């Protein structure tokens, strides 16, 4: 059995946004995403850097108050990491030793960060004193408790008036701690009001200049607290617009406005001096989970429950950063043959097309084409099945809605790809294609097939074959059944000559050309859950899994069981480009992966404990460029990459160590934006010198040597951030030495010059042979000259100058003498 070797499991697809995010003055947005911190540009909407290093979920990220080019991040792995996020460099790691659930900083407290850690029964806010050390990994054992019994929600803790006090809201009490007084004030509310409202604290915000604290509550009310530095003289006023709980609030930097949001998907902007005036930004698409404002107040952003960040300028949306929409995935994971995008459930009633290469959402396709109503208990249409043909010209979807006192509604929709809009357009809608719920659907993927065929199986005991045409029409070509049993899954062979349909514990094999039942394969006593045909050299095999934890392989030539093994397989799928079959097996609360070929008893690859829980959604995505891997354990990744969804809705994949290191190296390269102004320093980098290099080389060959633009010292000098460089006096000698030409280089340059002299000498000798012989007196004079003492030899520089003079054009002198 081949173990995992250098193959590792990594996150992909825009991991779900975790808690807080922050701006920096140059309009970069930082957000915690999975095990990393992503840095986005608010102007281009692209991910500039991904800060990796944490080994567990990142729970918070804040900009360092004393240096706006650096940021702290915290994680459940018990570490705080300091980053230079403009260049993606890890500066220092502080080991706390406890899981950290949020992080807070203040300019009033230098060298101290405040974190929320867990205790036996609750959470507490502690001050972490960061030691000054030159080491990259530093222990930070000095912790001091500030407030006990706080909420793990980062939005429930906030600093006020530049760090003079800190407020914490948890449950039904508000707690304010003043650092100078070292005194705590607590304020309590009743559980329910007389009108039935719920007073539970959800979030808190503090005015940057005034002594005012805003708290959001479960009943949708906002309370503005004042005089809270006196236990008995405090007052509060109430604002109410939200119909449900207020999930997040934030004051603008000047304190003129208060922003609030909740499940209504509406951002509310309250005037601080006149709360009766409000501005609204509705229809943001999903519930608001967090609000942040840039330091200059020009931009604000909201994060949403559908893994999206909306960037807002004024009261208008300026950009949207959409990750992989997480939620209930009813469809299988599919790959669009045209765009190579991952296709699965997105927003309610939509399919999302997610680019795996760019790690970015391409677009959402509205399948249901009905307005979604946010109301508990209301049954609405949802997309449950999706399939593509081999060319990507057709897509089929199934949507269903089940009501309590009515029959289930089903719609089979066929979508044709439109070349002009580069998207799928609804072609045909088949209402109630079956009498009961559809259990499986697949296209014939044979490239040589003249017609497009779709198979749908249903709990009504039938499967149907649909013929698709270019026009808006769809024809049911065949209806099949077997002994009144319920079909569960279906699949075509690679060449489209066979169709396998499982009816409970019996597998039936049909000929699509004549719709003749060719064979039946049975493996009692449990039902078949998955079916998969072999490919290429293994095309004669058919594999399936059963409810009694068996993996069976049938030989279609002999119609007999080739082999079987006992495995609790939750998902079985084949690579469309190779013979490899992937099987996700449940064992001891986690999932193991086995990759094998049906014709070989030894697995190609195996990995224990890929993730916790059960894997029910996975897909092989073909690579655009084949991976060149010579190791046996990773050759199965050369043509396709395997992606799968965990129970926590994290998209994971398998990569090699070399591939991951290449990705990390490319992300750290110095990138120069095309929008940079045309400055002398910009020209120094040589971006627009390519066209001038040829002419400059010929003109400067006789002069000074060109500067070594490819010098490693120059590249390192330009790439390294200025605040981490050594002193200029130290760099000066290294920089000057990089400009000097070594002796070896000079000798190499002299060799072409000597070769040129020899070639010219040979040319002169050949010209002398072609001339007529000279007269006797001339020979005599030459003999007399030879008897005279020889002249001193010319230097190389004199010879070079002599050749230059010989090549000069003296025709102008001849014309002058004639005139």
From TrEMBL:
<feature type="repeat" description="WD">
    <location>
        <begin position="194"/>
        <end position="225"/>
    </location>
</feature>
<dbReference type="InterPro" id="IPR019775">
    <property type="entry name" value="WD40_repeat_CS"/>
</dbReference>
<feature type="region of interest" description="Disordered">
    <location>
        <begin position="693"/>
        <end position="712"/>
    </location>
</feature>
<dbReference type="InterPro" id="IPR053826">
    <property type="entry name" value="WDR75"/>
</dbReference>
<dbReference type="GO" id="GO:0003723">
    <property type="term" value="F:RNA binding"/>
</dbReference>
<feature type="compositionally biased region" description="Acidic residues">
    <location>
        <begin position="755"/>
        <end position="770"/>
    </location>
</feature>
<protein>
    <submittedName>
        <fullName>WD repeat domain 75</fullName>
    </submittedName>
</protein>
<dbReference type="GO" id="GO:0045943">
    <property type="term" value="P:positive regulation of transcription by RNA polymerase I"/>
</dbReference>
<feature type="region of interest" description="Disordered">
    <location>
        <begin position="746"/>
        <end position="799"/>
    </location>
</feature>
<dbReference type="InterPro" id="IPR015943">
    <property type="entry name" value="WD40/YVTN_repeat-like_dom_sf"/>
</dbReference>
<feature type="compositionally biased region" description="Low complexity">
    <location>
        <begin position="693"/>
        <end position="703"/>
    </location>
</feature>
<keyword id="KW-0690">Ribosome biogenesis</keyword>
<dbReference type="GO" id="GO:2000234">
    <property type="term" value="P:positive regulation of rRNA processing"/>
</dbReference>
<keyword id="KW-0677">Repeat</keyword>
<dbReference type="GO" id="GO:0006364">
    <property type="term" value="P:rRNA processing"/>
</dbReference>
<keyword id="KW-0804">Transcription</keyword>
<feature type="domain" description="WD repeat-containing protein 75 second beta-propeller">
    <location>
        <begin position="333"/>
        <end position="649"/>
    </location>
</feature>
<dbReference type="Pfam" id="PF23769">
    <property type="entry name" value="Beta-prop_WDR75_2nd"/>
</dbReference>
<dbReference type="GO" id="GO:0032040">
    <property type="term" value="C:small-subunit processome"/>
</dbReference>
<feature type="repeat" description="WD">
    <location>
        <begin position="51"/>
        <end position="93"/>
    </location>
</feature>
<keyword id="KW-0539">Nucleus</keyword>
<feature type="repeat" description="WD">
    <location>
        <begin position="239"/>
        <end position="270"/>
    </location>
</feature>
<keyword id="KW-0853">WD repeat</keyword>
<dbReference type="InterPro" id="IPR011047">
    <property type="entry name" value="Quinoprotein_ADH-like_sf"/>
</dbReference>
<dbReference type="Pfam" id="PF23869">
    <property type="entry name" value="Beta-prop_WDR75_1st"/>
</dbReference>
<feature type="compositionally biased region" description="Basic and acidic residues">
    <location>
        <begin position="776"/>
        <end position="787"/>
    </location>
</feature>
<dbReference type="InterPro" id="IPR001680">
    <property type="entry name" value="WD40_rpt"/>
</dbReference>
<dbReference type="InterPro" id="IPR057644">
    <property type="entry name" value="Beta-prop_WDR75_2nd"/>
</dbReference>
<keyword id="KW-0698">rRNA processing</keyword>
């Amino acid at each position: 059995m081949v173990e995992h070797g250098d193959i590792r499991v990594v996150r992909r697809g825009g991991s779900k946004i975790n808690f807080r995010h922050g701006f920096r003055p140059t309009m970069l947005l930082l957000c915690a995403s999975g095990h990393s911190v992503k840095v986005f540009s608010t102007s281009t909407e692209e991910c500039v850097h991904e800060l990796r290093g944490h080994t567990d979920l990142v729970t918070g990220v804040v900009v360092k108050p004393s240096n706006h080019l650096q940021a702290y991040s915290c994680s459940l792995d018990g570490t705080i990491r300091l980053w230079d996020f403009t260049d993606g460099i890890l500066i220092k790691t502080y080991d706390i030793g406890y899981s950290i659930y949020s992080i807070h900083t203040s300019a009033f407290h230098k060298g101290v960060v405040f974190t929320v850690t867990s205790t036996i029964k609750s959470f507490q806010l502690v001050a972490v004193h960061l030691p000054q050390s030159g080491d990259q990994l530093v222990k930070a054992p000095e912790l001091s408790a500030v407030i006990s019994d706080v909420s793990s929600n980062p939005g429930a803790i906030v600093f006020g008036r530049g760090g003079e006090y800190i407020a914490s809201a948890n449950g039904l009490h508000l707690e304010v701690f003043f650092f100078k007084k070292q005194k705590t004030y607590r304020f309590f509310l009743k559980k329910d009001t007389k009108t039935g409202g719920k007073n539970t604290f959800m979030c808190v915000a503090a005015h940057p200049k005034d002594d005012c604290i805003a708290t959001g509550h479960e009943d949708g009310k906002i309370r503005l607290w004042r005089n809270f530095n006196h236990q008995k003289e405090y007052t509060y006023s109430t604002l109410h617009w939200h119909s449900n709980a207020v999930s997040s609030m934030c004051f603008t930097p000047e304190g003129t406005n208060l922003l609030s949001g909740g499940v209504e998907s509406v951002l509310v902007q309250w005037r601080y001096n006149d709360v009766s005036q409000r501005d609204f930004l509705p229809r943001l698409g999903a519930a608001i989970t967090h609000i942040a404002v840039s330091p200059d107040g020009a931009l604000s952003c909201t994060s949403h429950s559908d893994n999206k960040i909306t960037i807002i300028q004024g009261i208008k949306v300026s950009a949207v950063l959409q990750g992989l929409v997480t939620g209930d995935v009813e469809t299988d994971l599919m790959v669009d043959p045209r765009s190579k995008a991952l296709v699965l459930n997105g927003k309610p009633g939509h399919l999302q097309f997610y680019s795996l290469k760019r790690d970015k959402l391409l677009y959402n396709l509205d399948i249901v084409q009905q307005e979604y109503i946010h109301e508990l208990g209301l049954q609405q249409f949802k997309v449950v099945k999706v399939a593509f043909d081999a060319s990507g010209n057709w897509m089929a979807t199934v949507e269903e809605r089940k009501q309590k006192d009515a029959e289930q509604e089903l719609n089979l929709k066929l979508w044709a790809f439109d070349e002009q809009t580069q998207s799928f357009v609804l072609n045909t809608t088949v209402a109630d294609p079956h009498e009961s719920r559809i259990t499986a659907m697949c296209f014939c993927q044979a490239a040589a097939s003249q017609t497009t065929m779709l198979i749908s199986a249903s709990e009504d005991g039938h499967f149907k074959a649909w013929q698709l045409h270019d026009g808006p029409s769809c024809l049911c070509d065949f209806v099949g059944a077997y002994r009144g049993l319920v079909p569960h899954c279906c699949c075509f062979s690679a060449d489209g000559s066979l169709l396998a349909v499982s009816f409970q514990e019996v597998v039936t094999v049909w000929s699509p050309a004549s719709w003749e039942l060719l064979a039946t394969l049975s493996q009692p006593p449990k039902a078949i859950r998955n079916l998969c045909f072999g490919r290429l050299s293994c095309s004669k095999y058919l594999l399936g899994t059963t409810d009694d934890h068996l993996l069976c392989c049938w030989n279609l030539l002999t119609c007999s069981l080739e082999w079987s093994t006992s495995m609790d397989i939750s998902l079985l799928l084949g690579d469309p480009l190779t013979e490899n079959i992937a099987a996700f097996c449940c064992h001891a609360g986690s999932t193991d992966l086995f990759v094998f070929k049906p014709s070989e008893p030894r697995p190609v690859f195996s990995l224990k404990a890929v993730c916790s829980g059960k894997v029910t959604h996975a897909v092989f995505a073909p690579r655009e460029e084949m991976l060149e891997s010579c190791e046996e354990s990773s050759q199965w990744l050369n043509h396709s990459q395997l992606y799968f969804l965990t129970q926590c809705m994290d998209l994971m994949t398998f990569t090699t160590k070399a591939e991951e290191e290449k990705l990390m190296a490319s992300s750290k390269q110095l990138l120069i934006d095309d929008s940079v102004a045309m400055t002398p320093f910009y020209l120094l980098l040589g971006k627009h010198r390519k066209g001038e290099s040829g002419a400059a080389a010929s003109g400067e060959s006789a002069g000074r040597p060109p500067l070594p633009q490819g010098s490693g010292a120059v590249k390192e000098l330009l790439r390294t951030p200025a605040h981490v460089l050594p002193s200029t006096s130290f760099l000066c000698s290294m920089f000057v030495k990089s400009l000097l030409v070594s002796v070896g280089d000079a000798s190499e340059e002299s060799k072409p010059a000597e070769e040129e002299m020899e070639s010219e000498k040979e040319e002169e000798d050949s010209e002398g042979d072609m001339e007529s012989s000279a007269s006797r007196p001339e020979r005599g004079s030459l003999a007399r000259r030879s008897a005279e003492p020889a002249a001193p030899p010319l230097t190389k520089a004199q010879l070079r100058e002599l050749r230059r003079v010989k090549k000069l054009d003296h025709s102008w002198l001849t014309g002058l003498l004639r005139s």
